[in-house]
């Protein structure tokens, strides 16, 4: 079983030696947050943590289904508190080490290359074909901002120390990935929940502008936006359906306006629907893509003509006659409804999340045709989640959606925590 007393001892120890923390001995934060912003070149969502001694800011790409936090230790990693996990230690077990031994690549130890250290496997789903690598399991200091209190220190945060090549396709200065997977004891949310004794949950709210911060809430509600609106009141839930680090839900059908699409139900239930922040646009298995595209085109007003597609999209429109929704919901577009485990529970995708202006005069349906070989029916990507709040409630094995915050005249950048 995972014990958190280890962290608590060290947190208290730090409080005692630091006079500013002395007054905080009884402070038990139950909620934290991270600012998150889209990298315009890679479309990955990036957050920044403070790590090491002395503390430095480290940019990491968000991966909700990731099992661990991994950081490039090969280039520019300096810390006086870095500690590799020794073979067969508790840390190796928690981080599911796959191998153990001496680092033979160079005749000199450094972070990421020590003797008698254990390794696990880390991957970058943003890279072509998904690259894997062994990475040294280690501990170091990490700090995080609590939602209604000070910055809090976790002295021995467990992470994996990866080679530099794995950071490709993440964006400039991005040094790794921060995983929020549900099963691993060392995912970011699990380590925080264990250290501070709150039930495992987090919520993401991705901004649509690369200039403006969205937010990841970790821990307890509320999720406060402008004028005190608490987005948790709008959440509707669907169960998490698989035992996997990644998050799968049941999409049982899709509607476009009032039309229910004829889809392969076996594919929908067996293939499943995954939620991924590493994928910029929702991927639909080819037969599902074709059905959505066809219905979307036929439900568009007749004067909106299709035009030559612009990759990676396959369904594009002349923008001249696309209107803006009078309700402030983005572009006027047919509504796309993902019906979840129950016919009365559906996620609504409006024009702001279904259409993308790709260049002057051309809008595209912001969904892509996935590869048949993956077997997955749907991978919900970040564009469709922008300005929606999505809660991952691991303890109760369910995922909550709010629908577009535009319905509430607010958006993910419109909160006082990170803006
Ligand atoms: C490692 O470095 C030491 C000291 O610099 C040297 O004596 C030794 O031969 C080196 N070993 C290898 C395998 O290069
Ligand atoms: C992966 O790489 C191949 C060859 O370089 C390229 O043709 C393909 O488009 C790439 N796929 C993605 C998703 O980047
Ligand atoms: C439906 O999907 C399943 C699973 O991918 C596949 O085996 C089957 O052939 C599909 N049925 C049709 C009619 O396409
Ligand atoms: C869009 O329609 C307008 C008006 O009919 C036309 O002038 C323009 O060339 C069209 N744009 C594209 C990309 O087809």
UniProtKB/TrEMBL annotation:
It comes from the Eukaryota. It is found in: Secreted, Extracellular space. Keywords: Secreted, Signal. GO terms for biological process: proteolysis. GO terms for molecular function: aspartic-type endopeptidase activity. The keyword Kinase does not apply. PROSITE patterns: PEPTIDASE_A1. Residues 1-23 form the signal peptide. Transmembrane segments: none annotated. Residues 45-402 form the Peptidase A1 domain. The keyword Secreted applies. One of its GO terms (cellular component) is extracellular region. Belongs to the peptidase A1 family. This is Peptidase A1 domain-containing protein. It comes from Solanum verrucosum.
